[in-house]
Amino acid sequence: MQLELENYVRVEKRLDKRRDQFALSEGYINASEDASPWIPFVENVWIRHLTFDVRNNSATNVLWVAAGGKLGRHRHRGPVNGYTLEGSWRYLEYDWVAHPGDYVRESPGRCHTLVSESGMKTIFQLNGALEFLDENERIIETVDVFWFIDHYLSYCEAHNLPINERLFL
User: Fold this and answer.
1) Is the model's pTM score more than 0.70?
2) How far apart are the C-alpha atoms of 26 and 156, rounded to whole Å?
3) What are the C-alpha distances in Å from 58 to residues 86, 99, 117, 124, 137?
4) How many Å apart are CA 90 and CA 47, to the nearest integer?
5) What is the DSSP code (8-state) at residue 126?
6) Beta-carbon-side half-sphere exposure of residue 103 (alpha carbons within 13 Å)
7) Among the listed residues 55, 46, 111, the one whose alpha carbon sits nearest the alpha carbon of residue 80
8) Which of 24, 73, 139, 153 has the most CB atoms around it within 10 Å of its CB?
9) In 3D, which of 49, 65, 39, 63 has the Cα closest to residue 119?
10) 87 CA to centre of own chain
């Protein structure tokens, strides 16, 4: 038994060394807008970027939609997870309304239009591209992790704000 325990400890120490050698460091983004500002997205909609993961074409952000705001009809090409922090929101195409504490899991390929009558803030983890569609279902814009990175960097550069390297995985 003692030999098994010693072997286990030896292996764990070796694995810790490998982790420290290759894994990304832990991340922490505080609530201050100095860490990540609210950046205009579309009319009455702002994004606070939390992570950019180019290896997996994923991004995490907080979406803030003002009362009466709308995010145009769009389709995700990867799964999306959302957790509502404040307010309420819904998709015109569905019969549910998300409130604080509600979790939403979206499957790839579905089209929907986000609206918020009262305003909302929701954390979204997006994987893959997001395609905005016109009234004829034609793609008018594609948004992915590289678009989100450019959105963040361009805003910081235009407003002489420091780039937070901790947002990049």
Assistant:
1) yes
2) 24
3) 23, 24, 28, 10, 24
4) 18
5) E
6) 3
7) 111
8) 73
9) 65
10) 18
Residue 49: other Cβ atoms inside 10 A: 24
**22-68 confidence digits (pLDDT tens):** 877 778 888 888 899 999 999 999 999 999 999 999 999 999 999 99
Between CA 70 and CA 16 the distance in angstroms is 46
Q: Residue with structure tokens 């550069």?
A: 157
| Structure-block tokens of residue 155 | 């805003």
In this structure, of 13-17, 66-70, 145-149, the range with the lowest mean pLDDT score is: 13-17
Q: Which two tokens stand for residue 93?
A: 């195409």
Give the H or E element holding residue 46. strand 45-53
Contact between 104 and 58 (Cβ < 8 Å): no
- Are 49 and 166 in contact by the 8 Å Cβ rule? The answer is no
